[in-house]
Every structure is written in structure tokens, then in C-alpha cells.
Design brief:
This protein has five helices and no strands. It is mainly α. It has one domain. Helix 1 crosses helix 2. The longest helix is centred in the middle third of the chain and has 13 residues. It is globular.
């Protein structure tokens, strides 16, 4: 059965700034975290394969979000969610999934 995930397209430019990638430095930790999380097999995550319910946020994106903030010393789910509105690197990492952070962390 196919899994239904919310589409995360990091290649789509935004209006302000014109392109988020230009605001995230090449040496930013977010790039390392995204690369590392992509190596984790999808089978390691609990995924609703039945296709019922709402679309799920990609588990790799949620894991990358948690790892990124833990590496930056932010541990509480509400603090992480609040920080997603200020941190450009996380907007690049998690767009458009910011609103659901406290539910899953």
C-alpha cells in the first residue's frame, strides 16, 4: 500500500526571501541533519500504511526537526514549535509542517 505524506518541496522558491536556500549557509547544521536523516530507512518509522486519516508529515522531516533542535539545545516541544517561526534554517527544513510540531515532539 502507498503511504500518504504531506508534500515537502524544498526546491520551491518563496516570495520573502526570494529563495530560502540563499538565507541558509552552506555550512549550516541543517544540511548535515537532512543528509543524515535521509539515510534512515522508512521502515524504521511508524507509518500509517492503511491510507486512512489525514496525510502524515514525513517522518524524516519530523526526525530532522527534533535532531536539529536538540543539537541546538532546545528540548521542549512548545519551545521547538515557537522557534520554528523564527529560525530560517528550520523553515527550510520543515516547510510547511511547522504547525504540527508540538503534537509529535
Amino acid at each position: 500500500m502507498s503511504t500518504r505524506f504531506v508534500t515537502i518541496d524544498r526546491q520551491t522558491p518563496m516570495l520573502m526571501p526570494p529563495d530560502l536556500r540563499s538565507w541558509v549557509g552552506e555550512d549550516d547544521l541543517v544540511h548535515f541533519v537532512l543528509e543524515a536523516v535521509e539515510t534512515v530507512p522508512l521502515s524504521r518509522f511508524g507509518v500509517n500504511c492503511r491510507g486512512s486519516g489525514s496525510e502524515q508529515y514525513p517522518p524524516r522531516m519530523m526526525l530532522a526537526l527534533v535532531i536539529y533542535y536538540y543539537a541546538n539545545g532546545i528540548f521542549g516541544s512548545r519551545r521547538i514549535e515557537r522557534a520554528t517561526y523564527r529560525d530560517v534554517a528550520v523553515r527550510y527544513l520543515a516547510t510547511p509542517g511547522r504547525a504540527a510540531v508540538s503534537t509529535y515532539v
